[in-house]
Please model this.
Amino acid sequence: MPIPALLALEDGSVFHGYAVGATGETVGEVVFNTAMTGYQEILTDPSYAKQIVTLTYPHIGNTGVNVEDEESASVHAAGLIVRDVPRRASNWRSTESLPDYLKRHGIVALAGIDTRRLTRILRDKGALNGCIVAGEQIDVEAALAKARAFPGLNGMDLAKEVSVGESYTWNEGVYDLDRTAFNQPARRFKVVAYDYGVKYNILRLLAEQGCDITVVPAQTPAADVLAMKPDGVFLSNGPGDPAACDYAVEATKQFLDAKIPLFGICLGHQIMGLALGAKTLKMKFGHHGANHPVKDLDDGRVLITSQNHGFAVDPATLPANVRVTHTSLFDGSLQGFALTDRPAFCFQGHPEASPGPHEMSYLFDRFAALMKEARTHG
Ligand SMILES: NC(=O)CC[C@H](N)C(=O)O
Model:
């Protein structure tokens, strides 16, 4: 017999199902993600800290889990909700089933509920705080009270919580063309990457551009980074409210003043906006998926992108020296901008994909080009 589990939402909704991960309880903001694949990358994306992810694709776990698809050193999502987990995982790379993996990481997960109904609630009301409880004895009222007691992500600074404790250099090689071996690429640029919750594939794509990467903790002062004389600084993705990361905003102001090549992704994009004096706002239910159309305003192309954010930069608050480069074709929200008087640009979605399409990867070429240009003319 499966172990009972339920989801209680702050609006009073209760969904009864069964446990497919650890027993116990977890609280967080409940969001939905529409990606059809990539559950392991989603679970290990540090940007999901304090969020319970429900996947709208109904069969999750079909291909098991493997060591290559980890996007960080641990699972960061606060919990997982799915419609159904297959009884058996099948894939040549699979080393473990999803339920075993969730149990091993202590992640509470719920299956067997109507995820379509849950998603409609989240779309109508916006992301809601929730509590999953998994175990033989469940007190529904206590679960509802825990959902309501969760303070929500507004004002929550989580980047420094998930960041690395000490600096390190990213030494993983780069796949050769037939993807059979890792080679050490020629290092053309020295890049310092701020870890606000960085995903491995960002570091891999930077390495592919020939970057010699030093990853630094979220609260590293800008002066320490500038003393390393990097060719460029990268601001990573990460969880929580960007407006709460005052240390990151302060450091970014100094990088902008120093006119150092700067590239930000997701939380990094929001931090760059804040450093320029713009405002961020909480979206209704955010963007979480792997098929979000985004328009590149420079050439009119539409790119299918990977997305995961619940906050956004308000474009009306951007200063005059900013050029909007990308907008969402789902809701018109700001997706990317570049400075007109500095070698700095950023993107709200996930050009590194993992999971998702690779259509935005040209932004990594753009960062390399900016660093090359700055070296020639700087
Ligand atoms: N993926 C991210 O970097 C997310 C940024 C931020 N935590 C948000 O929810 O908008």
About this structure: The pocket of glutamine is lined by residues 47, 237-240, 242, 266-267, 308-311 (CB under 6 Å).
